[in-house]
Amino acid sequence: MSPTADAIPQHKNKRSGWRRTLSGRNLRLISGLILFAFVLTHLLNHSLGLISLQAMEDFRTIRIAITRSWAGTAILLVAAVVHAILGVEKIISRRLSAISTRGLLQIATGILIPVLLARHLIGMRISHELFGVNDNYDFALWAMWPAEAWRQAGLITLVWGHATIGLYMWIRFKGWFNYLQAPLLVTAALVPVLAFAGFQVAGKQFHATRTFDSPLNSEQYTTIIRIMDIALYVSLALIAAVVLIKAGQWITAGFKPKVSVTYNNTVKKTAPAGLTLLEISRESGIPHASVCGGRARCSTCRVRIVSGGETLAPADAQELKVLHRAGIDTPDVRLACQIRPREALSIIPLVPAGRINRRQSSHDKYADGVEQIVTLMFIDIRGFTKFSEGRLPYDVVYILNQYMGRMSEVITSNSGYVDKFMGDGIMAIFGMDDEDGHGAADALRAAVEISQALDELNTIHEATLSEPLRIGIGVHTGEAILGRIGTSKAHSAGERITALGDTVNTASRLEALTKQLGKELVVSASVLQTANAGPPELASETYEIRGREDPISGVSFASASELSAVISP
Q1: For residue range 230-240, what is the model confidence (pLDDT) as tens digits?
Q2: Which CATH architecture has domain 369-565?
Q3: 167, 186, 401, 433: which has the highest count of C-beta atoms within 10 A?
Q4: 8 Å CB contact between 123 and 221
Q5: The pLDDT of residue 470 is above 50
Q6: Domain at 257-360: CATH code
Q7: Burial of residue 554 (number of CB atoms within 10 Å: 0-12, 13-18, 19+)
Q8: Where in the chain is the domain with CATH 3.30.70.1230?
């Protein structure tokens, strides 16, 4: 029995914008990006050792002017503390069985970083702050090469590995990631290699050409070593504490209250209360799709709540955001990684785990869906029902095939993608392989050529047609979800790429407006702005679009060929 809307907590988001921004997940991301910027510039500074010692020192002077200012120091310190606290909280709060291999590797590198970082930080920055040591590259190379070389290599590997895994987990769902994946991978591999190579070359050059006297007396040196030892013991104690807490959680899990989850009205599993539904699935050996690893960055773990939904906590801001982006607004659909059943629950997973895994291995970005800015075009024949009445089926199909074939040629020749044919209508996507907005310009050129192609068809088939074919065209640019929707196991329907979201609905409504306005083409202002076509005042009309709260600006043309006057060559 399906739940009613009253039985499921409604998707409402009452948190203000700043509270959403300051959520734990966003704070971890922001603090991580700040630390990543520091690490990247630090490693690039090391790599300049391949050029000269002076190049290293010149770049360092610029770098520390920012990082050692009172503002820079405060930002880095807060970012480091926040990131560490939230990282530990994440480790303690999540079941290890629910964390992907990448996630476990990121946790392992993150735990080990303090062991080596504390020694480096004390030897450099703390020496400077306590005893006024000028910790420039002369001091660093004197102190660390070659005695600290292996620790330096280990620290670079741990920090860079931890940072790049986290960055990858964040950006892999971005629409542009597929285009830059190869160069980003090469860059990620080169940065630590060049950093250590620069450190090594500079170390050898320094010891071969310069002499250096220790700026620390024996008492100061002893103090620094003592602080390093204390920091090492504290780091190891914290690691041991986290390990003990996780061990305690594992032991006590058997004594916690149990909750039952029924899958697809057939399979029933029992697990400790307090786990997320995704964790329950994995611990119970139930295949459950989750491309992002349970971070609420994709919607592949979504489930339909059959019963027990009224016992779940309402969706938070992050879950609502993901569901909205997936075009889901029904309260009985939730993300398995975000709900923690406390009482019996019956669910139906909505994305087959097997298909996700197969497609993941093919590196097809559309298999799991991407969100990017594209231009949507809808074309529809006016009065086609009347046209087809009284004609032989062969004649109708022949004319329609001639029309569809010619329009498709125009769309594809202008870098467009024919999404689907809908009776006598066509839906096309422009800008799928483009991040610079050229899709909008391509769509405008295609609209002009479509109008011209229609005139040619009407001339060719003048003897067959009782009256010329007329069409309506709607074009709109905006963010849309692109993906392969449907199953491809038994047929090829699921192999086609389609677009979903408000941009699609708006383009369709603009096409419908052409009939009401008696025009051939309606273009939204976003298309003209993205394509840099015509002056801003060109989009002087305002349209009320069903399903949108705010009206949309645009311009209409009696014939799409008129648009050629405002398209930049």
Answers
A1: 999 999 999 99
A2: 2-Layer Sandwich (3.30)
A3: 167
A4: no
A5: yes
A6: 3.10.20.30
A7: buried
A8: 369-565
HSE, CB side, 13 Å, CA atoms: give it for residue 356.
19
Q: How many angstroms separate the most distant Cα atoms in the chain? A: 105
For the chain, where do the domains classified as CATH 3.10.20.30 start and end?
257-360
- Which of the 8 DSSP states describes residue 125? I
Long-range contacts of 325-331 (CB under 8 A, 24+ apart): 325/299, 325/371, 325/481, 325/501, 326/299, 326/302, 326/369, 326/481, 327/481, 327/500, 327/501, 328/299, 328/302, 329/11, 331/5, 331/8, 331/9, 331/10, 331/11
Q: What distance in Å separates the CA atoms of residue 391 and residue 210, rounded to the nearest whole number?
A: 95
Query: Residue 390: what pLDDT?
Result: 64
Residue 204, H or E segment: helix 177-209
Name residue, tokens 């949309």.
Answer: 552
Find, among 335, 311, 340, 307, the residue nearest to 323 by Cα: 335
Q: Name 93's Cβ contacts closer than 8 Å, sequence gap at least 6.
A: none
Task: Tell me the pTM.
Answer: 0.56
CATH of range 17-252; options 1.20.1300, 3.30.470, 3.40.50, 2.60.40: 1.20.1300
List pLDDT tens digits, range 88-122.
988 887 777 667 778 889 999 999 999 999 999 99
The pLDDT value given to residue 363: 47
- For the record, the structure tokens of 201 come out as 């070359």
DSSP letter (8 states) at residue 381: E
* pLDDT exceeds cutoff 80 at 527: yes
